[in-house]
Amino acid sequence: MTTAPDLTELLADSPTNWGKWGADDEVGSLNYLTAEQVLAGVGLIKKGELFTLQRLIGDPNGDPVWPGRSPATREMIFDESHWDEGGDGPAFPGGLHYADDKINAFLQGSTQYDALGHVWYDGQIYNGYDARTTVGGLDKASVEPIAQRGVAGRAVLLDMARHLGVAHLEARRTFDHTDLEKCAAAQGIEIKPRDILLIRTNHLDLFFEDEAAFYGDFCEPGLVYSAELVKWFQDKEIPNLVTDTIANEVTTDPHSGVALVLHNALMRNLGIAFTEICDLEKLAEDCAGDGVYEFFYVAAPLKIHRATGAPVNPVVIK
Ligand code: UVW
């Protein structure tokens, strides 16, 4: 039986952007989103129509998360029943009653931005920081600097499901940068340098159809590692990869057998921000309707100190 190589071996010659934006950098390829890119995105606003990309936290139909994580739960702390006779509702002058609740959620669950320091190999996270800086919370490359910065720019939707003529991509289906280029050409657009990439697979359709079967055969479809793909992302200066899958890439690389290779080649090494578990359905429908696949994208992940990721509700404006 052949064993999978480790990431150190597989990515030995893979390029990094470490040091490119200084030894203190913690936001990586988001540095490509200059004021010029923001204005290029704003210039695409024609209809004034908004599309929110977050999945509903607490969705009664289910909350897809990476295996081993649990969906967010919301707990009611106060509601009118707490002021029933003998209840624990606080008494305020004037008779105020109020509703209060809280959530318990994986910061890597639901729609979220990954911190650049979320994954690593070889004892180093993005920009060469020591992986020991993650202990007890990320002291370097947490989601905090991304959240402080905010994300905005020109973006394109690559509707791979529609391009391939399927309702959703099945488990294990892979594609690469050449497929993205073909998809863009079929949609009548060009992927420009510094574009934020939104990729639709609609794979989570299968989660909502049959959750047990979805997790029973868990290997999401998506982008697959090759040296050429990494070079394409680096040459194009892609700042942010946004998808509707849990991990933004094929779960296990079919060639090497290694898991989440692109988390390392693109996020750890190139500093590309990952935005996962988005709902791209309404946006995709609109794009198919008006034939416009490029737009303004803006996202403000929550500011959470030392966190590995943060919930976000990205907004596209067309
Ligand atoms: C893991 O953390 C394993 O994956 P993701 O970034 O998709 O949540």
Spell out the blueprint of helices and strands.
Elements: H1 7-10, H2 35-42, E1 50-52, E2 73-78, E3 100-104, E4 112-114, H3 144-149, E5 151-159, H4 160-163, E6 174-175, H5 177-186, E7 196-200, H6 205-209, H7 211-216, E8 222-223, H8 227-236, E9 240-243, H9 261-268, E10 273-276, H10 281-290, E11 294-299, E12 309-311, E13 315-317
Parallel strand pairs: 5-7, 6-8, 7-9, 9-10
Antiparallel strand pairs: 1-13, 2-3, 4-10, 4-12, 5-11, 11-13
Description:
- The chain folds into two domains: 269 residues, Putative cyclase (Glucose Oxidase, domain 1, 3-Layer(bba) Sandwich); 32 residues, no CATH class.
- The strands form three sheets. Strands 1-13-11-5-7-9-10-4-12 form a nine-stranded mixed β-sheet, with helices on both faces. The protein has a two-stranded antiparallel sheet with strand order 2-3. Strands 6-8 form a two-stranded parallel sheet.
- The mean pLDDT is 97.
- The protein has 318 residues and is α/β, with parallel strands linked by helices.
- It is 22% helix and 17% strand.
- The radius of gyration is 21 Å and the shape is globular.
- Bound molecules: acetylphosphate.
- The site of acetylphosphate has 8 residues, from loops.
